[in-house]
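Supplementary Methods. Inverse-folding protocol.

Structures were first reduced to a discrete structure-token string of length 410. This string, shown here, constituted the complete conditioning input.
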């Protein structure tokens, strides 16, 4: 709740002081030894390969994380070893080494000089993982990409199957900036179905089709009170779990619906949440960087640009922070290393949010949600030393909504 627990002060560290070893590089445990994690030279930055018995490391987070991995990820492990070998052949090292590859965004990229409405000078990227809490495979990817990559934010779904696990992870990763991924479609409510009877079907679930759901809200404005109760319950679930939310967005970006966005602004102010997501993706840039389906990209990009224009005015009038640009909508599920590297030279001044849906592997929950998503490749992209090096070379800062909010208040 507002005034509730504050997360730790490690928020602006570009690579956390104890990055999680890559769980993909494991060996087979031998008799009398704990399972082994392999640390190739690109991870240690030493030029030597090494292996570490988990029992010899006093890091309960790493131990529990590694013990959750099983044979189901063997193929992914082989693919990651191949990727690691390619990076190593190019002379790219992974990890902190003698210092971070990415420039500190404060004060390098965020200053008191107003630029783009956010007090930002130059270019700043915010990397966000959506659907935090949807499954353990996604939760583990968030932890890994935050501790060893460029991921700074995660949008948490309070009613999702693994939301409790995600909240526990968020408490143990205080440098992770958490927001609420408000959900009214393709999920279940936090409130009992009888408290929101007009929002759910006979099985107590939200509808699955976003377009039909959106038209329903236009046709039935009387649903707004139930939506407000459910949104408030989702936000309170995060606060009451001891996690401070710093931003609001939504599953399938439904929060930009004209009937819903004023409600989102009201709740952001009520619950002391300083930022909301706008979906202002330049379809021309996305297509040049490699996004497919040109006609769909144009129509979708223009639709959300129109919705975001109105939303921006409402958010600004309420004193809320918003991102200037966004990528992730038009290349949904395919935010790979190659695509991100093609995006970086095209980023405009201001704050650009880049969101994806990484996972260690596609479990049944994730396959049911989005079978075509290239989740493992999106995880590799967030861990990529090539991406980190390119961010540094282009002087693009990496930040989060918490840092923006704190800088804005100075």
């Amino acid at each position: 709740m507002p005034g509730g627990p504050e997360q730790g002060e490690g928020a602006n560290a570009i690579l956390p002081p104890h990055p999680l070893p890559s769980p993909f590089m494991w060996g087979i445990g031998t008799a009398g030894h704990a399972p082994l994690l392999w640390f190739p030279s690109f991870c240690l930055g030493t030029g030597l390969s090494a292996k570490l018995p988990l029992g010899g490391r006093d890091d309960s987070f790493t131990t529990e994380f590694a013990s959750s991995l099983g044979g189901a990820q063997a193929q992914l492990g082989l693919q990651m070893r191949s990727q690691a070998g390619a990076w190593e052949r190019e002379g790219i090292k992974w990890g902190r080494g003698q210092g971070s590859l990415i420039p500190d965004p404060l004060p390098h990229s965020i200053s008191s000089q107003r630029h783009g409405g956010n007090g930002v000078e130059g270019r700043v990227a915010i990397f966000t993982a959506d659907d935090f809490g949807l499954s353990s495979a996604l939760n583990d990817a968030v932890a890994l990409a935050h501790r060893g990559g460029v991921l700074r934010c995660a949008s948490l779904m309070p009613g999702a199957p693994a939301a409790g696990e995600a909240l526990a992870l968020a408490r143990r990763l205080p440098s992770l900036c958490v927001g609420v991924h408000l959900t009214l479609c393709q999920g279940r409510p936090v409130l009992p179905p009888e408290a929101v009877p007009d929002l759910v079907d006979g099985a107590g679930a939200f509808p699955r089709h976003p377009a039909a759901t959106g038209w329903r809200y236009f046709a039935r404005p009387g649903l707004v009170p139930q939506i407000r109760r459910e949104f408030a319950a989702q936000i309170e679930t995060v606060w009451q779990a001891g996690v401070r939310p710093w931003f609001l967005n939504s599953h399938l970006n439904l929060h930009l619906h004209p009937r819903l966005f004023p409600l989102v602004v009201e709740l952001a102010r009520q619950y002391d949440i300083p930022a909301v997501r706008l979906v202002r993706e330049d379809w021309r840039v996305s297509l040049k960087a490699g996004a497919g389906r040109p006609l769909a990209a144009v129509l979708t990009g223009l639709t959300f640009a129109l919705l975001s224009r109105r939303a921006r005015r409402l958010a600004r009038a309420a004193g809320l922070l918003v991102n200037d640009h966004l990528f992730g909508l038009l290349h949904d599920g395919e935010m790979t290393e190659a695509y991100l590297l093609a995006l970086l030279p095209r980023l405009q001044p201001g704050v650009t949010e880049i969101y994806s849906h990484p996972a260690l592997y596609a479990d049944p929950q994730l396959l049911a949600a989005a079978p075509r998503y290239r989740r493992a490749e999106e995880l590799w992209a967030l861990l990529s030393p090539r991406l980190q090096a390119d961010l540094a070379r282009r002087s693009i800062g990496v930040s989060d909504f918490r840092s923006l909010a704190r800088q804005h208040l100075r």
